[in-house]
Write a structure and sequence with these properties.
Helix content is 24%, strand content 48%. It is an alpha+beta fold and 112 residues long.
C-alpha cells in the first residue's frame, strides 16, 4: 500500500490495517453506529461492518495504491486509490469517502 499523506489518523490507520488484513483493527476504527457503503450495499453498526470485512471485503486479494487525497470538510476526507488484485477486471479506481467523529470513522463510502 502506498502511504496516505496528511490524512487524519483514523484514515491512515484504516489503510494500514487493510494492508495487513487485520479485521479486528479495521472494525475497532468505526463508531458503534457507523455505516459503510460498498458495492451498493449499506452496512450499519459494528456487527454488519465485521460481516462485510470477513465476507465481501475478504473475498479477493488486492493491493491498494493511494493516488490522491483531499479534505472535503472538517470531518470529511476522501482518499482516491487504485486497487490491483484477483477480482473481476483486476484493476479498479475507487474513492474512499470517510466521515469522521474524532478518532472514529462514522461513515465510509467506497465507490468509483
Amino acid at each position: 500500500m502506498s502511504s496516505v499523506g496528511r490524512a487524519p489518523n483514523p484514515v491512515t490507520r484504516y489503510f494500514e490495517a487493510d494492508a495487513e488484513r487485520n479485521i479486528d483493527a479495521i472494525v475497532d476504527l468505526f463508531a458503534g453506529d457507523a455505516t459503510v457503503i460498498d458495492e451498493g450495499q449499506t452496512r450499519r453498526g459494528i456487527d454488519e461492518i465485521r460481516e462485510w470485512q470477513t465476507g465481501p471485503a475478504s473475498q479477493y486479494e488486492y493491493r491498494v495504491t493511494i493516488t490522491g487525497e483531499e479534505r472535503l470538510a472538517d470531518d470529511r476526507y476522501r482518499v482516491v486509490a487504485r486497487l490491483d488484485g484477483n477480482f473481476p477486471g483486476g484493476i479498479a479506481s475507487l474513492n474512499f469517502d470517510f466521515g469522521l467523529d474524532g478518532e472514529l470513522i462514522r461513515s465510509l463510502e467506497i465507490a468509483p
